[in-house]
Amino acid sequence: MDPPDRGDSFSEGSDEESVGSSIPRIPITIENVDSQEILTFDYDEDKMHHSFIEFMIACDLPYTFLQDPLVEYHMQCLNPLFKSPPKERTKELIMKKFQEQREQVRELIKGVKGKFSLCFQIWDLTDYPDYYYLCIAAYYIDDEWKLNKRIISLSKSYYCPEDEWMIHFITEQFKNWGLAKRVFAITTNNLNNNINSSSVLSSVELLNEGRLYHVPCYAHVLSSIMQVGFEFFDQSIEKIRQIIRDINDSKQPNPNLEIYRKACEKEGIGFSYFLNYAPWRWSCMYKMIDVALQQQRAIDLYCSEHPSQDLRYQDFLNKFRPNGEDWENLKFAKELLRVCDGPQECCSSVYHPRVCEVVHQLGEICLFFQAYADVPRFEDVTRKMKEKFYEHWDELPVIFGLASILDPRTKTTMLKVLVELIYNNNTKNLDNFEAELNRLFEEYRANTPKNVVVGSSSSKATTKIAEYLKMKQPEYVKSSELQCYLNEPLIQRYDNDDYDDVLAWWKAQERRFPVLAAMARDVLTVHVSTVTPEEVLSTGRRVLEKEKCSLGPTILEATVCLRDWYLARERLHDQDEKDKLEYDMWMMKLGDDDEEEEDEEDEEGKNKTVA
């Protein structure tokens, strides 16, 4: 059997195999060579197609994957009876699976004990700038105290819709998923003023039949601060990037790499390969700068004593060779990226509650401001970053304070220290946190079964006192649970891995603190960002791949939701982000090679023109 050409047309199926028709099972007999046994089984093509759909979803392949002639050819090598389903049949199978799993997710959400935190995300279409998708993701904590995420809706709309459309869309989702009275907080994209408008937020509160917390996107705030720093040291990073590209030249053999290796040996520095630079990946930028600083002397020697006699190449080295100020800028950039590494993980992590760590990270950023505020070279850029910081964080969102108090490593004791650090001994925010904590505790206490037995006796002489104590039980519960929790010693932060998971701690203490545990279950579901910092750095929001932009809204919602539900079922969301990083690194290397090829083509063109 010869493999088909990709350009060949393929059959859309006969009348007997039209969309929705049942495919008969075909008995097959094969010989097991090892055991000399004859095995007979029924080949179920319909089951094979369903398994392929699951494979496509898990691997995030386009839904036209099965129509590729080469795929059909390879499958027929395994089983000559295999035949790819028509495109419409594939679409029908995807939609059927989507409808089935959506009902399962709906039942799962119906059985969740606590409340939900909704995250409103904006997804752009690269080929259709006038349209965008609004995605709603629901976060919740299950009975095992595990944080979960499910995308519940993906809807296409014109860019920047009116409030009426937003209200109608959100109302429809609340009804479809039974979210009334079950939403604790919403996180919105700061760049979309329509979602943040007071009328939309008020409507969501009315739909929820109660107050909810609004959380601004942490990644956007963080990136606005980082952009000030990037503008300052961007030229220094570009210099070191060009030198690294030159050292990492993909041509084989690579004389530059050997020259640089000898420079490292001459300076007594251990040779280490450079990481390619990705402008949208802060972690890549940090690692690149870190290695460059460790090998600073070798880089200077490589630029100053390169044996090449090409005058243009020597001009290139002189132009991009980092000077003393550039190296100082790189040290500043490295420290800034190190400080922002925690917030970056905070914005992208799915399975670990990071809302309780935001105040700690803001305190870390303020310590960075203090360290460079009096350094003449960095005084101005630090002041600008600090102004941008307080432009967004003039007053901390209450939810961040509540989450910190419900972290047994922080509570009000360390929260006071952090607030004083961030706001120069101004504790106005702390008073707001404590007042909201008491209000919220009373609200949850009224809705939590009373497991505390105040007192009981069969003696008639104690009947009145028992009734009196029962009447005063709310104050008793309050003083014994909330104050007991706050008065207990802090758990040392990060000293014990068993207590580094705040959800595991609350699971173990649920019987001791039933009201606070119910509060923690809802507060810790809050997701602090709608996008990762890298997405903010590049476009400001998530961008759909070109292959998906051409899909209709219905099939796109089905594929995106099925993919998300698969990752959620296997708890692979965080791993998926790591895989994207590795893929970006690989694509970045290819991009460097393409740039070099383009440079060579331009140079050849110039030479031909001169000739």
Outline the structure in words.
With 611 residues, the protein is an alpha/beta fold. 58% of the residues lie in helices and 10% in strands. It has helices spanning 45-59, 69-78, 87-110, 163-177, 193-196, 198-208, 218-247, 255-267, 282-294, 296-304, 311-320, 324-339, 341-348, 358-372, 379-392, 398-405, 411-422, 428-447, 463-471, 473-487, 502-508, 514-523, 533-538, 546-549, 553-570, 573-610; strands at residues 25-32, 37-44, 116-125, 131-141, 147-158, 183-188, 213-216, 542-544. The strands form two sheets. Strands 3, 4, 5, 6, 7 and 8 form a six-stranded mixed sheet that branches. A two-stranded antiparallel sheet has the order 1-2. Strand 4 (131-141) and strand 5 form a beta hairpin. Helix 8 packs across helix 10 (296-304). The longest helix is centred in the C-terminal third of the chain and has 38 residues, at 573-610. The two termini are 52 Å apart. The model is unreliable at 5-23, 452-462, 494-499, 536-541 and 585-611 (pLDDT under 50).
Supply database-style keywords.
611 residues; six-stranded mixed beta sheet; single chain; disordered C terminus
SSE topology sketch:
Elements: E1 25-32, E2 37-44, H1 45-59, H2 69-78, H3 87-110, E3 116-125, E4 131-141, E5 147-158, H4 163-177, E6 183-188, H5 193-196, H6 198-208, E7 213-216, H7 218-247, H8 255-267, H9 282-294, H10 296-304, H11 311-320, H12 324-339, H13 341-348, H14 358-372, H15 379-392, H16 398-405, H17 411-422, H18 428-447, H19 463-471, H20 473-487, H21 502-508, H22 514-523, H23 533-538, E8 542-544, H24 546-549, H25 553-570, H26 573-610
Parallel strand pairs: 3-6, 3-8, 6-7
Antiparallel strand pairs: 1-2, 3-4, 4-5
